[in-house]
Each structure stands twice: as structure tokens, then as C-alpha cells.
């Protein structure tokens, strides 16, 4: 993976471990919702991750965008599908999403580079 992807994943893993070391039961339950919500169900994982990405872009959360871009990549989303996801996010979120769109494209490009 590229530098942006590696830095994000390393930091996220490090801080998630740190948080879990001191998290109380309620916080651990809240964080577990992510795993159960995005698991296979009536909607497949790929669809759920695409929905999560659109929501993250509209809410303008760069960490969430990177996380869902990675999960979309793992779920087999291709670049043509990703461009449609980006279009939906920009349409729903408006022009304020464009800076996040730029960073998302950069991150997606790194995810798609062959090792």
C-alpha cells in the first residue's frame, strides 16, 4: 500500500489498542456496533461499506472516509463504482464535500496501486 494508507492504518490500529486498554463497557459495546452493523445481513458487506462511505463524505469525516475506502477496496468495489459513489456523496453533500472528495480520490488511488 501507499504511504497515506500505511500511516492511516498504523495510527488507527495503535490508537484503537490504546482506547480499548482503558475503555469502559459502554464504550466497548458502542465500538462493537461497527463490527456488527457492517457484517453480512440483508444487505451485503459491499453495499453497507458503500453506504458508510457516502455518509462519511457527507458528514465530512476524513478518518471515516479513509476507513470506508479501505473496506470498499477489500469488498471488491472497483474504480467505476467508486466514481458513482463519489458522485452521490457530492450530490447529497454539496460543494462542501469537494475537498474531502479530492483527498478520497488520492487515498483511493493509493489503495488501487498494485504492490
Compact overview of the structure:
The protein has 115 residues and is mainly α.
Characterization of this structure:
The protein has 115 residues and is an all-alpha fold. It has a single domain, classed as AhpD-like (Up-down Bundle), CATH 1.20.1290.10. Helices cover 79% and strands 0% of the residues. The protein has helices at 3-22, 25-37, 45-59, 62-74, 79-93, 98-112. Helix 3 packs antiparallel against helix 4, helix 3 packs parallel to helix 5 (79-93) and helix 4 runs parallel beside helix 6. The N and C termini lie close together (6 Å).
Estimate the global geometry from the Cα principal axes: globular
Oligomer: single chain
The class by helix and strand makeup works out as: mainly alpha
Unreliable runs, pLDDT <50, ≥5 residues? none
Please tell me the total number of domains.
1
**What is the alpha-carbon Rg in Å?**
15 Å
Q: What is the terminal separation in angstroms?
A: 6 Å
Number of DSSP helices?
A: 6
CATH class term: Mainly Alpha
Major sheet description: none
* Strands, total number: 0
Average pLDDT value? 96
The fraction of residues assigned to DSSP E strands is: under 5%
CATH-defined fold name? AhpD-like
SSE string, helix = H, strand = E? HHHHHH
Q: Identify the CATH homologous superfamily.
A: AhpD-like
Helical content stands at over 70%
- Gross CATH architecture: Up-down Bundle
